[in-house]
Design goal:
By secondary structure, this protein is mainly beta. The chain is built from no helices and 15 strands. The chain has a 7-stranded antiparallel sheet with strand order 2-5-6-10-9-8-7, with no helix packed on it. A 4-stranded antiparallel sheet has the order 4-3-11-12, with no helix packed on it.
Length: about 160
């Protein structure tokens, strides 16, 4: 694995920190599912972690009414804490949240992250997002982010 050198205006995921950093963003995020816009907000927080494309967390209140439903399952992040899952309309366990984030990750409280590959379309500042490979991490890839990215086959040992 050899990191891609970022060009002007780009970020390398290999320059992101571990433990992850949480940072507010003011770029517009729009999510479409089943032909309907279910989120349109500029109240955005992203999490940056070494080798991963950013994960975007959006206010629960920014989702259209009735779109988010509880889903079974929990997972644990050594940094952010215990996560719960949500179904997004008919897409089972397509989102997650941290009901009680660990210290340093309080900005994630009352926010939801979605797997972009399980939505019809996600955009950041008008650019269509590519989903991170795999079914675990849920990173959002744009032209501003370079890898290689953890998540695909053969990358678990990175």
């Amino acid at each position: 694995m050899r990191p891609v050198v970022p060009g002007p205006g780009q970020e390398s995921v290999w320059d992101y920190p571990r433990p992850p950093r949480v940072e507010p963003m003011d770029e517009r995020v729009v999510i479409e599912l089943d032909g309907v816009t279910i989120v349109d907000t500029t109240d955005v927080v992203r999490v940056l972690e070494t080798s991963h494309p950013p994960v975007y967390y959006l206010p629960r209140a920014a989702f259209a009414d009735g779109v988010l439903m509880p889903a079974p399952g929990r997972s644990m992040c050594e940094f952010k804490g215990s996560a719960g899952y949500l179904s997004v309309k008919s897409r089972d366990s397509a989102a997650w949240y941290y009901p009680t984030p660990m210290p340093g990750y309080e900005l994630l409280r009352d926010r939801v992250a979605v797997y972009p590959g399980r939505m019809d379309r996600c955009t950041i500042a008008g650019e269509v997002v590519t989903a991170q490979d795999g079914d675990f991490y849920g990173g959002w890839i744009t032209s501003k982010i370079v890898g290689p990215f953890k998540g695909g086959e053969g990358t678990w040992g990175w």
